[in-house]
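Put briefly, the fold is written as integer tokens. The lines below illustrate.
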Amino acid sequence: PLCEFAACPELPVAPVATSTVFSKDDLIQVDASIASTALASPLMVTGRARGPWYFEASFPVELRDGMGAMLASGVAQAQGEWMTMDYVPFSLSLNFGTPTTATGTLILKKDNPSGEPANDNQLIIPVQF
């Protein structure tokens, strides 16, 4: 309102709750609820990633059991213009069979068409089935 005689009070800013998001190198973020509930098929994976995480608007995703066996793999698709340094939403649905372990990992890989190890990056999220 009118602040002629005193400095205007600052509005409180809510802190970013990092415990609700899995992230990696400020490049990709996935809702942490994916790790707090038992997963069932089909698994919907959503989040946001900065443009450099994508190549041609996509990146690979893997779901592995606790022994490292592949349960499902797919390609997450950008839901907008990906050639940017800003965050761009993505989504992917993974269908998988009954796991033989109670836990596993969801792996979101930075797309690396060059194959150069220096360009590799991935976000690994522990999950339970």
Q: What stands out?
A: The two ends are 53 Å apart (CA to CA).
